[in-house]
Automatic annotation (TrEMBL), chain A:
<dbReference type="GO" id="GO:0004642">
    <property type="term" value="F:phosphoribosylformylglycinamidine synthase activity"/>
</dbReference>
<keyword id="KW-0378">Hydrolase</keyword>
<dbReference type="GO" id="GO:0004359">
    <property type="term" value="F:glutaminase activity"/>
</dbReference>
<comment type="function">
    <text>Part of the phosphoribosylformylglycinamidine synthase complex involved in the purines biosynthetic pathway. Catalyzes the ATP-dependent conversion of formylglycinamide ribonucleotide (FGAR) and glutamine to yield formylglycinamidine ribonucleotide (FGAM) and glutamate. The FGAM synthase complex is composed of three subunits. PurQ produces an ammonia molecule by converting glutamine to glutamate. PurL transfers the ammonia molecule to FGAR to form FGAM in an ATP-dependent manner.</text>
</comment>
<protein>
    <recommendedName>
        <fullName>Phosphoribosylformylglycinamidine synthase subunit PurQ</fullName>
        <ecNumber>6.3.5.3</ecNumber>
        <ecNumber>3.5.1.2</ecNumber>
    </recommendedName>
</protein>
<keyword id="KW-0547">Nucleotide-binding</keyword>
<dbReference type="GO" id="GO:0005524">
    <property type="term" value="F:ATP binding"/>
</dbReference>
<comment type="subunit">
    <text>Part of the FGAM synthase complex composed of 1 PurL, 1 PurQ and 2 PurS subunits.</text>
</comment>
<keyword id="KW-0658">Purine biosynthesis</keyword>
UniProtKB/TrEMBL annotation, chain B:
<comment type="function">
    <text>Part of the phosphoribosylformylglycinamidine synthase complex involved in the purines biosynthetic pathway. Catalyzes the ATP-dependent conversion of formylglycinamide ribonucleotide (FGAR) and glutamine to yield formylglycinamidine ribonucleotide (FGAM) and glutamate. The FGAM synthase complex is composed of three subunits. PurQ produces an ammonia molecule by converting glutamine to glutamate. PurL transfers the ammonia molecule to FGAR to form FGAM in an ATP-dependent manner.</text>
</comment>
<keyword id="KW-0067">ATP-binding</keyword>
<keyword id="KW-0658">Purine biosynthesis</keyword>
<dbReference type="GO" id="GO:0004642">
    <property type="term" value="F:phosphoribosylformylglycinamidine synthase activity"/>
</dbReference>
<protein>
    <recommendedName>
        <fullName>Phosphoribosylformylglycinamidine synthase subunit PurS</fullName>
        <ecNumber>6.3.5.3</ecNumber>
    </recommendedName>
</protein>
<dbReference type="GO" id="GO:0005524">
    <property type="term" value="F:ATP binding"/>
</dbReference>
<comment type="pathway">
    <text>Purine metabolism; IMP biosynthesis via de novo pathway; 5-amino-1-(5-phospho-D-ribosyl)imidazole from N(2)-formyl-N(1)-(5-phospho-D-ribosyl)glycinamide: step 1/2.</text>
</comment>
<comment type="subunit">
    <text>Part of the FGAM synthase complex composed of 1 PurL, 1 PurQ and 2 PurS subunits.</text>
</comment>
<comment type="similarity">
    <text>Belongs to the PurS family.</text>
</comment>
Length: 235, 88
């Protein structure tokens, strides 16, 4: 399975994301922000970093990168897309996910290992986890405070679209402790913490992050076999 | 000059921690009668020809403001003379 990892000017975690894909058993395909061709990948990761220097708002300019038009079209067609940190911000700016990520409430950049509770496993990126499972992955952001209006928040909860919540402390003030959400079809997931930094014992606090990438491979294998592993959309 | 000014503000219901930090610093200046400070962004767009408010509105809506969390307002910046700018 070929999973594309996009590099924008200012991306930082594209290398780690590609490495996580490989460790999970997939083939990582590097995609370039200026190239609208997705090169036939089966899924896409939008990595963390500071695309376009976070000018204007985080993700606001990346949303108009040539590659993003293709990613957005494919995502609407069911392509699994995972946005991590800055990638999550880009997905919100592109209206592929609801809400927005704003300045951390305490105004400090937070960089620590963070406990999350998996709240939704019916997505292309979390089907390898169990509901309620606690995982430990790094979090590192200055603008990770998830906000949306009450109606949107209620909708996300009612439809089971909150994918992960911060537990044992909320690092940025996100509403309802939301760390990750998905779209209605379950193929697009945005997560603020960094699963790609928790895939090897040498460098990560755990191997818990690997589950996101093995989930995508499992989902794609299920799709290829004609089965439907999750409630998500088919390509 | 064909200049359009776009003001972008966080919606009233969105918390503005930067504004709060500024408000909390004001007593150090000896100012104690401020109840709230909110911080926004002013963007000046220069057109080659006549200012085009419709284009400016599109730019503001699609890029300059995030309608999920921000409101914006647009106006043509009148050349100085019509209304004398306040000097500091």
């Amino acid at each position: 399975m070929r999973i594309g990892v996009v590099t924008f000017p200012g991306s930082l975690d594209d290398g780690d994301a590609a490495r996580a894909v490989r460790i999970a058993g997939g083939e990582a395909v590097r995609l370039w922000h200026g190239d609208p061709d997705l090169h036939g990948v089966d899924a896409v990761v939008l990595p963390g970093g500071f695309s376009y220097g976070d000018a204007l708002r985080c993700g606001a300019i990346a949303r108009f990168a040539p590659v993003m038009e293709s990613v957005a079209d494919a995502a609407r067609g069911g392509l699994p897309v995972l946005g991590i940190c800055n990638g999550f911000q880009i997905l919100c700016e592109a209206h592929l996910l609801p809400g927005a990520l704003t300045r951390n409430q305490h105004l400090h950049f937070r960089n620590r290992d963070q406990h999350l509770r998996i709240a939704g496993t019916a997505t292309a990126w979390t089907n390898s986890f169990t509901e309620g499972q606690e995982i430990l992955v790094p979090v590192k952001n200055g603008e990770g405070c998830f906000v949306a209006d009450e109606r949107t928040l209620d909708e996300l909860e009612a439809e089971g679209r909150v994918v992960a919540r911060y537990t044992r402390g909320n690092p940025n003030g996100s509403q309802r402790d939301i760390a990750a959400i998905t779209n209605a079809a379950g193929n697009v997931v945005g997560i603020m913490p960094h699963p790609e930094h928790a895939v090897e014992a040498l460098t990560g606090p755990s191997l818990d992050g690997l589950g996101f990438f093995t989930s995508a491979l499992r989902y794609l294998a299920g799709s290829a076999a004609g089965g439907q592993l999750t409630g998500g959309a088919q390509r | 000059m064909a200049r359009v000014v776009v003001d972008v503000m966080l919606k009233p219901e969105i918390l503005d921690p930067q504004g709060q930090a500024v408000a909390n610093a004001l007593p150090r200046l000896g100012v104690n009668d401020i109840s709230s400070v909110r911080i926004g962004r002013r963007i000046e767009i220069e057109f080659d020809g006549e200012p085009d408010l419709e284009t400016a509105r599109e730019i503001a809506d699609k890029l300059l403001a995030n309608p999920v969390i921000e409101d914006f307002s647009i106006r043509v910046d009148e050349p100085a003379g019509d209304s004398a700018p306040m000097s500091a």
